[in-house]
Design brief:
Layout (H helix, E strand, L loop, with lengths): L3 H13 L2 H23 L1 E8 L4 E8 H15 L12
Antiparallel strand pairs: 1-2
Amino acid sequence: MKEFGTLYVFELKKILGQRLVLVSLLLGVAMILGWNLLTFASTGYYYVYDAQKNDVERLPRPYGEVEAMRRDYMRGLSGQVLDDPPWSS
């Protein structure tokens, strides 16, 4: 049982030494990175509520711009009391 770690490392090296495993791992990493980059290049939606019309408008924008608008909105909320709605001031 003392040689279990040595056997484990030996088998792991044998498995990772195969070309198919290496190609599969590299392809998986490339797909994950590509998907993340594709998400930031795609279109997101920003929702604007009009209280007078009681209507919600869905504005398609680039995802980066939508995230920037969301961050700006959240910065505007910081410092406000949570129970105090923005329209009451």
